[in-house]
């Protein structure tokens, strides 16, 4: 991998991230992303740099039911030092059961709760970024989860958004409730559910949360596309660490850049096309190991192609072929057709990636915004919603 020095920057005096008994030397967290952060991608990222690498989100109900897919999601490589799992749930009892299972069966060293997902099928049921609006439900889930996790001395964190929309912000209340419930850290994505991934992340909200919660670690998420963005976020907000999501899609070497930046080094990865092709093939091989099914693995790798080759000179015909690969052999043959001597294209390969979506009115349960507490009908519907989201 080509390494290039950038203009030197002063070293950040940021200590290792402490999460209960855990110490994360490089205060960087890979955000859980469905269909992305499986064990193959986590290994690829770990090979470049340090940090905490969180598995894909899994529903509490699916885990309690021990569906094959949910058990695959929470599986970790033997050499993953910290087995990190993110749970999604809307019912305190079920979330508690899932946490208890992870702890009693020694399946996780760190557990994160998802209160940030903006996807309509999740918010429509009152979950994800819609849930903190109901402070009684949010409090019950977090307190139950912390209680169960503490029995095994497993640190529990939460990840959330600013709120539902600009008129229904929840992050400060939710942060205080989480702190008072005993969470090990709080991560904030500086967008509302209504924004989805559009526009700019509001780092000033992250700074306000940092100021409001001086006694626990606060982590910042949103628009970290480079190591320099991470440095800027830390300086502007005072956070204890950063959470990286879409910025590493097709760029697992970003974690190498982040580790270098936090160590005060100005060296950055600037891969040419040959090096990118090698990473793609390595990723595909790891996916085959993960799924034990070459056809499924190659179908899964297709979504990564546009991210890996963003900004590089790759003709439309080859891009189409890469998006339809069916085997490692076909992938190898297609990659060999690239102009592998093409250099790093600079800024064209950097910056935003992935679908940003557009602002939209969040899908919510009936009368969800009328009150900050649950009524009888909503409580009944929530228990049914938990049953409906099984499957991992």
Biggest sheet record: 8 strands, parallel, barrel
Principal-axes geometry comes out as: globular
Helical content (DSSP H or I, runs of 4+)? 25-40%
Strand neighbour order, sheet with most strands: 4-5-6-7-8-11-12-13
N-to-C series of helices and strands: EEEEHEHHEHEHHEEEHEHEHEHEHHHHHH
Rg computed from alpha carbons, rounded to a whole number of angstroms: 21 Å
The total count of strands amounts to 14
Structural class: alpha/beta
Low-confidence stretches: none
Average residue-wise pLDDT = 93
- C-alpha termini separation: 36 Å
What is the number of helices? Answer: 16
Strand content: 5-15%
Give a quick rundown of the structure.
This protein has 392 residues and is α/β, with parallel strands linked by helices.
How would you explain this protein's 3D organization?
By secondary structure, the protein is an alpha/beta fold. 39% of the residues lie in helices and 15% in strands. Strands 4-5-6-7-8-11-12-13 form an eight-stranded parallel β-barrel, surrounded by seven helices. Helix 4 (92-104) runs parallel beside helix 6 and helix 6 runs parallel beside helix 7. The protein starts with a strand and ends with a helix.
